[in-house]
Amino acid sequence: MKDTLKIGLLGLGTVGTGVLTLLKEHQEKISQVTGMNVVIEKAFVRNLETKQAQAEEYGLSLTTSIDDILEDKEIQIVVELMGTIEPAKTYIMKALEKGKHIVTANKDLLAQHGSELVALAQKHHCDLYYEASVAGGIPILRTIANSLAADNIQQVLGIVNGTTNYMLTQMVSADKSYEEALAEAQALGFAEADPTNDVDGIDAAYKMVILSQFAFGMNVSLPQVDIRGIRGLSLDDVAMAKQLGYEIKLIGSAEQNENSISVEVAPMLVNQKHPIASVRNEYNAVFIKSAGVGESMYYGPGAGAKPTATSVVSDLITIAKNIRLATTGHMFNSYQHKTQLTSSENVFGQYYFSLDVPDTPGQFLQLTQLMTKAEVSFDQLVQQKSDGQRARIVAITHQISKAQMQQVVIAIQNTEAFQLLNVMKVIGDE
Amino acid sequence: MKDTLKIGLLGLGTVGTGVLTLLKEHQEKISQVTGMNVVIEKAFVRNLETKQAQAEEYGLSLTTSIDDILEDKEIQIVVELMGTIEPAKTYIMKALEKGKHIVTANKDLLAQHGSELVALAQKHHCDLYYEASVAGGIPILRTIANSLAADNIQQVLGIVNGTTNYMLTQMVSADKSYEEALAEAQALGFAEADPTNDVDGIDAAYKMVILSQFAFGMNVSLPQVDIRGIRGLSLDDVAMAKQLGYEIKLIGSAEQNENSISVEVAPMLVNQKHPIASVRNEYNAVFIKSAGVGESMYYGPGAGAKPTATSVVSDLITIAKNIRLATTGHMFNSYQHKTQLTSSENVFGQYYFSLDVPDTPGQFLQLTQLMTKAEVSFDQLVQQKSDGQRARIVAITHQISKAQMQQVVIAIQNTEAFQLLNVMKVIGDE
């Protein structure tokens, strides 16, 4: 007769239901791998009635009082699937103080209060796992923590928001406008009614904060991430990028420069030959460049009940094994490094500029002079279209620093005749 | 003062040197993660003189006597990087009998004698890790064992041989012939002087045997894998595939059907929209379709000294942690299932047939009749080119069983006027 490992669930939405289903379907396999019967004992919900049928189906009890779970000594693991900061944070902290291990999919919480929770888990010798918080079904955190421990990661590029990637794929491959693509993503249930967190890059930034912690051992805070979303991206830029051999993607980028890192989220031009360019629709991918392995990429669904539940259950299995082997209390990510940010003089990249200029002689010259002053040279320079009055010029620079890019932006903005339409980083050209 | 974990190395070629370099470069990080100083103490080599300078650089001793390592009680882990079956197998078995943990990159050995070695490791409570044996730098075995433990894998598609993928990429994108592509792969050091193992699909088959063990818990032997390589693949088929929207790739495929699996290696037509179609040159990728996560893919370099060494070192770190926590002796892959193979009546797929037929009326009809008799219907049917005497017909079927495919092949071969040029499975169309 095997031991039973009892779990308390906070929140019984689609992911919670997915966890129940997976544990039931894979009961035998999980018991074989962990040596225990892993069972959800209780679920904390807001409304007992709406969840009653489900509770009966899976044989668990429901409660609207958090203490029923926190004070239950037999419950060894708490799975938090409520989302947002409060009350999730308070509940997790109380559970840790009671010596319960935690699995959570809460990216907002981990990105903003991760260090505090990790420290508390350490203090109480508890496990705290959150694989599902980044890129849903892709086991990227575990991969970085375990398999790349002997490597030196130089760059992490992530398509870590499925909603915006779906929208961009539709804009690129079906010539849909930003508004049409957003409406479609909302109709399909990818985007919320208020799409701010997705389209403004905030959701992606949360995930990049967590990824940076794993890849570089550094705790970057959200205000230290340069964030720009895809709101209002024009089809002109999308078409121009395509014509030049690029796809526009919302990229979360974290790069190391000696002992410092820079983290940003922005729409970028990705060379069509770069592996991350082929990531379509709602899929996510994390591309890693490292000294040992070289280039690797991890691709899969970034959201959805089943993929997220799969990551939650693999965290549960990890903790179950740790409990059995009496090895709990080790950090999910034990790699720690002093956090230092790269100054904009030392962040390098190629940049795409698109400008609206008067269709008169001398505009190319003026732009060239302005760029030369910032010591910026071109890789490509294209005049795209003209209505006889105004023309559109697109320039892709060679490698320049972010500071130089900013200098050029200011110079363009100070040139009355020029209107700056967009600036985006270009990746994958080397 | 931290404990020192001493390692014996068998073979000091490029991968062995890579391991030494990584351990040196990441000394601090590894010591932080494992709580120990991980040190290569001795290396077993054939020729002392040629390796002397290297030994001095890394401060290790050399020996030409295997017993110097096997009998050294302070050496807790043996890393085998000699390749081929013997004497590697004997040395690993002796080391396990002495209670030493093993890391190896030896795919031939694991594919052919894996169960025996795993059982011996179990008997002596030793760890046996071999992440580097499949897909070099991609941590795919660990991912399946840990992160997909709560999932139900239905299909594994692998581009697991870099040499042939490089050749095929050159044939597709640069219109090079098979012979030219092979010569180029050899010049770049990807292909051996005798390329048999690569081009005939044997290397890929070894890796699929190991992957099947992890994905389905089943021990498939090499003779149970249907193996066909890319030797002599014609540019006509490559061009035709491209025109129809496919890339020809050497795919290792393992598929589950209820409680049985089928494993094969063959050139297949991959729909250009399938993620694995975009894997270029010497890169490897493993695409997994599973009930929980859905579609995921793991991409990276399949070979090379540094990527392979990175996987070896991550295995070393895993064992170091296990030793520290006194949790050694657990199987790398603990998922076990009764091995059962799917009969060819129950393996389904779409197939591409290319035929050379007389350029006379009635050929399409005859082919259609023959297919209809086997209850096979077409998705696409194209007459490609004709010299007035002979024409080339290409057909892509709907989903049929492998048995039906074989029936059609026999019927075509028995039709005197028809010459069957090629048959390949088609993937990614659903």
TrEMBL record, chains A, B:
Binding site for NADPH: 107
Cell membrane listed as a keyword: no
EC category name: oxidoreductase
Similarity comment: family membership: Belongs to the homoserine dehydrogenase family.
Alphabetical keyword list: Amino-acid biosynthesis, Metal-binding, Methionine biosynthesis, NAD, NADP, Oxidoreductase, Sodium, Threonine biosynthesis
CDD domains, per the entry: ACT_HSDH-Hom (cd04881)
Record-annotated ACT domain positions: 352-426
InterPro entries (alphabetical): ACT-like_dom_sf, ACT_dom, Asp/hSer_DH_NAD-bd, HDH, HDH_cat, HDH_CS, NAD(P)-bd_dom_sf
Listed cofactors: a metal cation
EC number in record: 1.1.1.3
Keyword Metal-binding recorded: yes
Pathway: Amino-acid biosynthesis; L-threonine biosynthesis; L-threonine from L-aspartate: step 3/5; Amino-acid biosynthesis; L-methionine biosynthesis via de novo pathway; L-homoserine from L-aspartate: step 3/3
Pfam families cross-referenced by the UniProt entry: Homoserine_dh, NAD_binding_3
Reaction catalysis annotation: L-homoserine + NADP(+) = L-aspartate 4-semialdehyde + NADPH + H(+)
Name of the protein in its database record: Homoserine dehydrogenase
Sites where the protein binds L-homoserine: 192
GO molecular function: homoserine dehydrogenase activity; metal ion binding; NADP binding
GO biological process, one term: methionine biosynthetic process
Active-site residues from the entry: 207 (proton donor)
Binding-site residues, NADP(+): 10-17
